Structure formats: C-alpha cells, structure tokens
C-alpha cells in the first residue's frame, strides 16, 4: 500500500492494483487475468496510469494473459465525464501504450458478484435476482447493486445502481487503534512485524485473531454494559504473549465505535434510498470485511435478527474476490453489462459513390471494448467555424469514435490520431447534435460488433 499525504491528519491511500489469474485448462487458450483497482481511487490520472504500467509487469508474467478485464470503482460507470476520463486512462495505458489484450472495463460490484459461483444456483428464487455489494475498503465504504440473470455461458451481471464514498477509512482506522494498543504493551518490540505499519492486508491476521475470540469479546461487552469492570477483560493479543499484554474489551470497543457509527449511518442511508426489498443478497469484501465486528453490524442493519422475515443473506468474500471475478469475466464464464438504454447514433457525412451523403454511426452501449476496426471520422481543415459536439469544439483532424456508457447517460470519446488525449463529451440519450461543418466518415463504418 502506498500513501500520498494530503495533510498529516488525512492520508489519501493510493492502492496497488490486485491481480488474479484463471489458468487455462488442457487444450484451452489462456490464462485470463482480472485487475481490481479498488472501491475508490484518490490518486491523479498520472498516478493511475503509472500504477497500471507497474502492474503490467505482473500481467506479462510467465504466461501473458489471453484477455484482461479491469474492475474499477462503480462510480466511474455513473455516466459522467469524470468516470469516463478515468476509464479512458485505463484503456489508453493498457491497450494503447502497452498493447495488452484489454477486453472490458467493468464495475467493481459486477466483478465481486461474478466471483460468487454459488450465485448461479439461483438460491434467491428464479432469476433475475438482486445482489448488493458492500466494499469495506481502506478509504471508502461503497455500495453497488446488480441484477443477476441466467445466460448460456454463466451469470449475466447488470450494474443497476451505486453509491460511493459513504464512510472515512475503515480497516485503517480500527486496525491502527488495535496495533497501537498492542505495541504499547510490548516494550521489547515496539513495532512487531506481525502487525505491520501498512493498514491494509496486514490487518487481516489481526481481525482473524479477533474473530476466533468473538464469543469472549461479546460476553465481555454485554457484561460491561452494566458493570464497567468487564471492559478490562483481555481479549486480543499476539501469539505467545501473556494476557497482561493483550488489548482489552473496552479498548476494542473504543477503537470500533467511530467505525460503527460510520457504518450504521452509511447502511441506513443506502437502505432508505433503495428500500429493504431491493437489497437482495449481500456480499461484503475489502480489508475491513475480515473484521467480525463490522460484518456483524452490517448483517444486523441489513437483515435484523437471523430469523426475521425478509432477512438478507450475507456472504463475506476475501479481498481478492473482485480480481477473481474480473478474471472470470475475462474467461467468458460470466458477463458484465450496463442497463439497456436507447441507442446512441452519431450523424456523419460519407462519400458514397463519389457523392456526399448523410449517414449515422451506431455507438453500442457496452462495458466491452470494440475491436480495432472502430469507425474513424474526419474533421476537415479550412473551415471558418470549428465542428462542435454540443458545447465542445472539435479541432480539425482524424478521430476514432468510442463511447463510454454509464448508468445515467454516456460519454462520447473522440480519440485523435497520433495518441493525443481523447476529447470527451457527455451525451443525452439518442442522436448527437452536431453543428456544421459536420464530421465526415473517413471510411464506411463497419457493421456493429456489439462491443464498445
């Protein structure tokens, strides 16, 4: 985990992408690789591109990937220009600069749901059914909602809603409190390697130990509600250390209370927006999902008592689950899409049989990238007024046409020849308004491939 300090009080995490690989079976192509960028990303576009270039060293390992799928924060698929710009950075760094076989850029919730093979069973009833993904990452609590339907190749997962940035750092804050409390008891070893300074994956062992002593903690906290002496009961310590050096129930409660308040507020806000019946099955991931206190709190908020009517089934997935799900989409045993919307079509002028004629280029909405044969458009030189897409001026030149669809709209990407940054234009549903002089097609666009 790398940390960029915005100020001394609030470090901004710049996560290292997690990678998972599905190996090829006998006689099959492969392997297939999934990349997970996390539930939120606070770094700059330049930092994102650099982290992807560094990850490419792992992607081009002993067996180069047959196909790659990248899972990104769900909020990057909301239909806005900012999210489209981030996805464009991913495409440009991996596909254009490094020539890697990037198949799709999907929401992290879709990747998490794809990792859950048991969802194919339709245990919630006949598909379609709903799955709510809860990402308890170091820098954000994020929710995504997906509809799962049956398909010939495996589950088809449609992202239908998302809510991001609902809480401050989670495992980092609680884990740091626990680590500090343990260190104060170990005069001979003030910074034990078992705990580590990185408040991310290194906290998983600490939470696992806490999970093993969950009943002891629950009993101490319950008794402490009426008699504070029980808050002094030792609960958590490093292997081989005496109970006098352990963290007490009261210290664990004090460390978890701020996180509990943030989690409770976030879950209740989400439920008030989507309604309890829309939550479906709940899947949790992220470093803090290894914290049994956090899991129990989220389970209680979503499901109430275990025997309550309408209770929500809860699954806890490990931190690599989104990367594994992305690898599964790369392999083709699950698919990830966005809700169907009206078609986007770009009016252009074409040269047909030596004459100038009008035409439309279809821009299919999909998480998947279109092959290299995407239509190219040309903005001619020498006009008194530049071509415009809405309020955006388009300089003369040759462009490849792309589209980044989202939940509430789409963003047109004009990719200049020569590798200059894309021109991104937010679009309403339907045909795109183009002022004269019109774009003209450099060649007749190919038949629609169904992939963006």
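^ Assign residues to that structure.
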């Amino acid at each position: 985990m790398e940390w960029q300090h915005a100020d001394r009080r609030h470090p901004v995490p710049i996560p290292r992408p997690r990678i998972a690989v599905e190996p090829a079976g006998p006689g099959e192509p492969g392997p297939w690789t999934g990349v997970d960028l996390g539930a939120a990303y606070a770094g700059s576009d330049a930092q994102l591109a650099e982290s992807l270039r560094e990850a490419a060293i792992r992607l081009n390992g002993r067996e180069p990937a047959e196909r790659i799928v990248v899972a990104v924060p769900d909020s990057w698929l909301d239909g806005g220009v900012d999210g489209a710009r981030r996805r464009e950075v991913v495409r440009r760094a991996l596909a254009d600069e490094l020539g890697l076989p990037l198949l799709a850029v999907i929401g992290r919730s879709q990747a998490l749901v794809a990792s859950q093979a048991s969802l194919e069973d339709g245990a919630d009833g006949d598909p379609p059914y709903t799955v709510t993904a809860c990402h308890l990452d170091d820098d954000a609590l994020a929710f995504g909602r997906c509809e799962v339907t049956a398909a010939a190749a495996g589950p088809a997962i449609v992202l239908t809603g998302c809510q991001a940035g609902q809480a401050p750092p989670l495992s980092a804050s609680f884990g740091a409190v626990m680590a500090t409390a343990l260190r104060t008891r170990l005069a001979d070893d003030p910074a034990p390697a078992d705990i580590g300074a990185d408040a991310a994956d290194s906290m998983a062992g600490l939470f696992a130990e806490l999970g093993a002593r969950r009943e002891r903690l629950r009993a101490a906290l319950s008794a402490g509600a009426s008699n504070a002496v029980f808050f002094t009961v030792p609960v958590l310590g490093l292997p081989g250390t005496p109970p006098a050096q352990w963290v007490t129930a009261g210290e664990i409660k004090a460390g978890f209370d701020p996180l509990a308040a943030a989690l409770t507020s976030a879950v209740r806000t989400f439920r008030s927006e989507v309604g309890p019946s829309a939550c479906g099955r709940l899947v949790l991931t992220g470093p803090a999902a290894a914290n049994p206190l956090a899991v129990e709190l989220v389970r209680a908020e979503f499901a109430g008592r275990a025997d309550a009517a309408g209770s929500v089934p809860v699954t806890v997935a490990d931190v690599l689950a989104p990367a594994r799900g992305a690898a599964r989409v790369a392999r083709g045993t699950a698919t990830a899409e966005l809700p169907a919307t009206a078609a986007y079509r770009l009016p252009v002028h074409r040269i047909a049989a030596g004459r100038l004629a009008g035409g439309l280029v279809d821009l299919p909405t999909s998480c998947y990238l279109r092959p290299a044969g995407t239509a190219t458009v040309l903005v001619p030189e020498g006009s008194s007024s530049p071509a415009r897409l809405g309020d955006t001026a388009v300089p003369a030149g040759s462009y490849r046409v792309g589209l980044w669809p989202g939940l509430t709209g789409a963003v047109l990407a004009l990719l200049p020849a020569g590798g200059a940054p894309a021109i991104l234009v937010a679009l309403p549903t339907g045909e795109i308004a183009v002022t004269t002089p019109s774009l003209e097609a450099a060649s007749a666009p190919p038949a629609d491939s169904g992939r963006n």
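The CA atoms of residues 39 and 73 lie 5 Å apart.
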